[in-house]
């Protein structure tokens, strides 16, 4: 592999060995990297870390339930063109003035290689992934309104995240490198926290991670806290002057970790009263 294009953990993102290997295989094979994992495992932040590690710009395409593949390619503002024609605006006949590239189009047209994050692809319609296959394979798309083919100046590094809300088509999966991010174990959690808060006291860190893991073990939580909530909580504990000894007896600021009434009620029924 090209040593200049190898991904490694950054100062703000700690990646496990398996994830690092998956990213670098995707880079070497020039294939999209499909990332799955429960919320809070750093799927979205991975793209930022890859862009930082490789010295590339990051383009983010946030997928919604109404998103179509066409949205990522380009849009044609027919309403503005009609408006301009009614008021005698010059240049109305130049359709290219009313074409706006989407996120995939931006990535293709960028002067340098970029990281393109297609975030939460499973939120879209079932046909959405298949509709992207041609463009992702060929690295080009055609704009019939202008007769122009947009070709990638540099093949973007494509990272796709999924929360597994829907099954993705087999044809799409065959074209991706897949990696499932397991939730960090205790050692990695402590390393992640120390990366963000190097001065955290050992006793506070140990007690916070223990309490965090115990909360995640409570059955039937609707939304388990993730690493981002842990980082926010440790920050709040430090700002509040909470010691490790206090955490052994009570749980301050529970609303930083749990965001649903039912989960807070479940916590009250647990040992933290």
TrEMBL record:
It comes from Eisenbergiella massiliensis. PANTHER family: MAGNESIUM-CHELATASE SUBUNIT CHLD, MOXR FAMILY PROTEIN. Residues 29-187 form the AAA+ ATPase domain. GO terms for molecular function: ATP binding; ATP hydrolysis activity. This is MoxR family ATPase. It comes from the Bacteria. InterPro entries: AAA+_ATPase (IPR003593), ATPase_dyneun-rel_AAA (IPR011704), CbbQ/NirQ/NorQ/GpvN (IPR050764), P-loop_NTPase (IPR027417). Pfam families: AAA_5.
